Amino acid sequence: MPKIGMEPIRRKALTDAAIEAIGAHGSMAVTMSDIAGRAGVSPALAHHYFGSKDRLITESIRALLRDLKSDAVAALSTARSPRARLSAIVAASFSQKQFSDEVVAAWLAFYVDAQRAPEIRRLLTVYARRLHSNLMSGLRPLAGERDAQRIAEGAAAMIDGLYIRKALNADPARHDAAALVEDHIETQLLEIRGRTL
Predict the structure, then answer these.
(1) Residue 38: how many CB atoms within 10 A of its CB?
(2) How far apart are the C-alpha atoms of 162 and 149, rounded to whole Å?
(3) What's the average pLDDT block by block, 10 residues per block, for the chain (197 residues)?
(4) Can you tell me the distance from the alpha carbon of 172 to that of 195, in angstroms, rounded to the nearest whole number?
(5) How far lies 196's CA from each of 32, 142, 148, in Å?
(6) For residue 76, what pLDDT is reported?
(7) Hey, which CATH number is domain 62-196, 3.40.50.300, 3.40.50.150, 1.10.357.10, 1.10.260.40?
């Protein structure tokens, strides 16, 4: 008889194990047996909870998105100005947990798989929209709509690009990566301030 309350614990263990396995392999070429072994459960139990490897991987992406959203909400809760909101989003994007080797490698594998999997593409679109919206919430009061859009696009491209570089072992330190994005934002804002003087 299954233990009461174990399902959420095992489901989380399996999504964590999927991210770890994908990060370790650097691709989706992992098996349910590999994932289940890392989670300390049987492959049959993994199939019972998720039905297929594709569903488990999709749920793993959702788990990453939930974690990133939770980190962003926590960081934004202490931001007292539009500029502080921008720094909070950058800091959340490059936190130790989010910018870890396995999470970054998993994100890269998800981006590659999005070319063939519409549900993964949809989830990555959710991520991109959320990042853009969070950046715009800080940029709009500082730069106006048009410039804010441009700066947000540049900052988002830098964040994604720095993840790719880390996944390809160019290995920027997370503090250096955050500083690069902060520098981009600040340089753009200074240019706008110069225009209005």
Answers:
(1) 18
(2) 20
(3) 72 92 85 91 90 90 92 94 97 92 89 89 94 96 95 96 86 86 96 77
(4) 33
(5) 58, 12, 15
(6) 94
(7) 1.10.357.10
pTM across the whole model: 0.86
Q: Quick one: tokens of 176?
A: 């250096």
Enclosing H/E stretch for 152: helix 118-167
Q: Where are the domains of the chain?
A: 62-196
Taking CB atoms within 8 Å and a gap of at least 24, the contacts of 172-176 are: 174/94, 174/95, 174/96, 174/99, 175/94
The Cα 184–Cα 121 span in angstroms is: 27
How many CA atoms, within 13 angstroms, populate the side-chain half-sphere of residue 64? Answer: 29
Cα dihedral 163, 171, 152, 70 sign: positive
User: Among all chains, which residue has been given the structure tokens 């993840």?
Assistant: 163
